[in-house]
Write a structure and sequence with these properties.
Layout lengths: L1 H5 L1 E2 L9 E2 H8 L10 H13 L5 H23 L8 H14 L4 H8 L4 H5 L20
Antiparallel strand pairs: 1-2
């Protein structure tokens, strides 16, 4: 799932920032929610990738699958009658939070999430109650 969420289409300039499929779709459709997409919207977006962006067929396929994934999440949340807003990012956040709860190293989590700066990963730490595994003892207590 992280691979899908981290997938990006890079602009031709090597120094330009990458945009996720979701952001690329939102930019193409002028901020239309990708979870509300219609079949014709998908076709138009994939045509845009092929014709305007000149991306490979495999990239178009990955974009198609990412959009289907987002739509499937929206449907699953609706069927489960989850009252709170939930998205692919919710799963990503939950994944990071569970890793923190399991005492995984913050650098490992940073790498798994694809964050270039550990400060971005540190945002997740405010959601988890601190848990001390080993209490510090004074040398005088031995």
């Amino acid at each position: 799932m992280c691979a899908i969420l981290r997938y990006s289409i890079k602009n031709k300039s090597p120094k330009s920032p990458s945009h996720t499929i979701e952001n690329g779709y939102a930019n193409y459709t002028k901020s239309k929610d990708p979870q509300l997409l219609r079949d014709s919207d998908v076709k138009d977006f994939l045509t845009h990738l092929a014709v305007d962006r000149k991306v490979a067929a495999s990239t178009q396929n990955q974009a198609f699958n990412a959009l289907l994934f987002l739509k499937a999440i929206k449907r699953a949340v609706g069927r489960a009658k989850i009252p709170k807003r939930a998205s692919a990012h919710t799963f990503r956040h939950s994944f990071a939070s569970h890793l923190l709860q399991a005492n995984y190293d913050i650098r490992t989590i940073q790498e798994l999430l694809g964050h270039s700066d550990v400060r971005t990963t540190m945002i997740y730490t405010h959601t988890i109650k601190s848990r001390t595994i080993k209490e510090a003892k004074s040398p005088l207590d031995f």
